Amino acid sequence: MANLLPSVQDILLLTPEIIILLSGLLILLITPFVEPKYQRITPSLAIAGSLLAFIASQSLGAGHRVILNGMISVSLYSAFFQNIFLIVNFLVVLLSLTYLEEEFANMGEYYAMLMFATLGMMLMAASSDLLSIFLALELMSVSLYILAGYFRRHSESNEAAIKYYLTGVLASAFMLYGISLIYGITGTTNLRAVGDFIGVSGSLARDPALGMAMLMLVMGFGFKIAAVPFHMWLPDVYEGSPTCVTAFMSVGPKAAGFAAVLRVFYVGLGSLRLEWTVIFAILSVLTMTTGNLLALTQKSVKRMLAYSSIAHAGYAILGLTVAGTALEGAGMSSLLFYMFSYLFMNVGAFAVLILLRKKALTSESLDDFNGLAQRAPFLAFLMAILLLSLTGLPPTVGFVGKFYVFGAVIQVALTGNGFYGLLAVIAVVNAAISAFYYLRLLMNIYLKDGAETLTWRYSHSLMFVIVFSALATLYFGIFPGSILSLAQQSVKILL
Amino acid sequence: MLTNYVGVLFLFIFALILPALMITLSKIIAPSNPSAEKSSTYECGIEPLGDANTPQSMHFYVIAILFVIFDVETLFLFPWAISYDLLGIFGLIEMIIFIVILLVGFIYAWKKGALDWVS
Predict the structure, then answer these.
(1) What's the pTM value of the predicted model, to 2 decimals?
(2) Set of chain B residues whose Cβ sits within 8 Å of the Cβ of A206
(3) Hey, is the C-beta of B12 within 8 angstroms of any chain A C-beta?
(4) Which of A76, A79, B48, B115 could be A490's S-S partner, Cβ–Cβ 3.0 to 4.6 Å?
């Protein structure tokens, strides 16, 4: 029984998570007690919490420790993802401030749920056991279901919440079934132990029950990262949710999903890599192509960004397929970098949608942005940077992210694997298709004339988020070295 | 390896056939002559008083969720109490953290008026 006891050092490794948990609880506790005119105290607490946790996670050091009976492994890998989540949390709190006040929905519960969702994502990235991954996933998902339906007076928001909930529960059921099959076969849920068990008994890798378990896990995680054909919930949920929640959902849960997928499939099911690389390759082709082709036909900017986020998940899955080959390190680090690059450009683009929006909750169409450059040259310039980054053009971080993912695929192709050559060609064609709809919006902004149809909702915090995202997009596009080497070091603990 | 799963396959086929058989057989064998009296809602033999689809107060659901808070609390307190001597001070601290987190939710619900019956 003595081994149950975690030491003080082990608990201290969880400082960022504990800070986020405490700030979430504190926000929930004081929410009913604060007067409406002091309502801004809760977002301030949320910002303070995420900043403190960010500082704490920087000071943890580079060591790799498995704690709490193998449930949690604290390492550079988990720290890399936790930094992504904390930055998203910080930016989204700033985005929500004035947006919620204008919609008369600025309540502490929103920030508490945001903190709990962030906690779930952080634990998910640090989990090294199927059970703790599942628990963290549920903590994240349940908070997000509530956030999606946060504008409870709007039917779209309700629709988003119920759709997200039903598909999310279905995905969780699949995932649990897969986990239970794996437990039945190997007698453990610890990912390292599962991997060792399957690796030692060579014949087990051909076991149909194990194949079934793998498919179940692919389906469960496929829903969470919105890979086609498990994507059908995404456009409606992203469009119906409050825009600040959409910005959060399009980055955080996706990165958390990829963090867990990489661990589960690479560490736990490493012996089945021949099978899952093929599955993920097919998923990635379907996801990229469907996302891009459907984004082409969208009239609403928010819905277009929703479909484009499906396409971006497709590019990221490419990194996953490379992780199953001999160049596993390159594949995984390119996936990590892609998640990091996606963070700034996407949050920034949604921030522009919050700054410039219609009076009602209806979506802003592409034509509403006509002639924006004449009316607001600075904002148009920032939006141009973000759109160029989403397209994947230099000198932005989106280009570097795509460059390393595609580069990893091409490297595998150069070792004589024609299948990956085909993948690379499809990916590049897809990037070209995506250029059409991003640049069409850019063309509307710069080349067309149009009257003001959107309402300006300027606030300093919103402008800060947009400028910050655009600057980060440019900075890491020109100097990607530090993050890239961090990503390469992070994945070493999985190798 | 696949031969190990022949039993599962047979069970699967059996599970498909059996309910289909039962449903079709009861369709064929059972006599069917419905009347207005027969197809009306059964309410313990009394005449139905009205539609059951009436709006319910949201408060019932809030109370149900509050019940779950305490239910889960006891659910975890019992096993801890039984193996208290094994878990020692570590278990005590764990349970205190657990109860404090639940308590925050409870204070929130209380202050929000979830316990006031008429509002």
Answers:
(1) 0.90
(2) 1
(3) no
(4) A76
Our CA-based measurement puts residue A204 at a distance from the nearest CA of chain B, in whole angstroms, of 9
| Averaged pLDDT in 10-residue chunks for chain A of 495 residues | 67 91 94 85 93 90 79 91 95 90 81 95 94 95 94 89 94 95 92 88 76 93 91 92 92 94 91 90 94 92 93 93 88 94 93 82 78 88 94 91 93 88 93 93 88 80 94 94 91 83
Whether residue A83 is contained in a domain is answered as: no
Helix ranges restricted to H, chain B: 6-29, 36-39, 59-82, 84-111
CA distances (Å), origin A476, targets A54, A95, A187, A402: 19, 22, 44, 13
Q: Do A337 and A398 touch, CB atoms closer than 8 A?
A: no
Q: Would A69 be classed as within a structural domain?
A: no
Domain of A431, in residue numbers: 282-495
Residue A482, C-beta contacts closer than 8 angstroms, at least 6 positions apart? none
A123-176 pLDDT, tens digit per residue, is 999 999 999 999 999 999 999 999 999 988 888 899 999 999 999 999 999 999
What's domain B57-119's architecture?
Answer: Up-down Bundle (1.20)
- Domain parsing of chain B, residue ranges: 57-119
**C-alpha–C-alpha distance, residues A215 and A262, integer Å:** 15
pLDDT digits (tens, 9 = 90+) for A179-223: 999 999 899 999 999 988 888 876 776 788 888 999 999 999 999
DSSP-derived 3-state class of residue B116: coil
Could you give the CA distance from residue A341 to residue A329 in angstroms, rounded to a whole number? 18
Q: Which residues in chain B have Cβ-Cβ distances shorter than 8 Å to A31?
A: 108
ipTM of this model?
Answer: 0.80
Task: Identify all chain B residues contacting A5, using CB atoms and an 8 Å cutoff.
Answer: 90
Would residue A28 count as lying in a domain? no
Q: Is residue A325 part of a domain?
A: yes
State the total domains in chain A. Answer: 1
